[in-house]
Amino acid sequence: MVLAELPRTRATLLLRLLGSGRRFREAVADLAALPRDAWEKSVAVPLLLHFGLDQQEPTANEEDEVSAAIRAWFEEYTQQLRDEGRNEGRAEEAARAVLTALRVRGIAVPDILRKRILIEKDPEILERWLERAIVAASIADVLPDLS
Asked: What are phi and psi of 49, to 5 degrees?
């Protein structure tokens, strides 16, 4: 079977991304239309980044408008992924700071609570926990609802 003969369905999306020209742009547009958490995006977007979709120059034909819209979506989507990655990194560092403060104060942290601290993503909660950890006498002083 030839890529150009594949039906324009979600099941063929990843294969169609291997195409070029109009077929490729259609596949990227279909990718953009999927829900934010679609597994296809988790597979395809890193590959598109690796192979430089964001670096491609617009084509000089009647599909320039479509190409520009796809490129704009792709840039916005990849920026969101970068932002999410930065936020996750910040949350992980804040969680480690809480654990460091507890360790320095000689407070034992059970594995279940260590895992709970490490999975927290809310920066306000992590900041509150860190403030408590700095002056805490026990883990119950830091995580009163969980201890």
From this structure: -65, -45
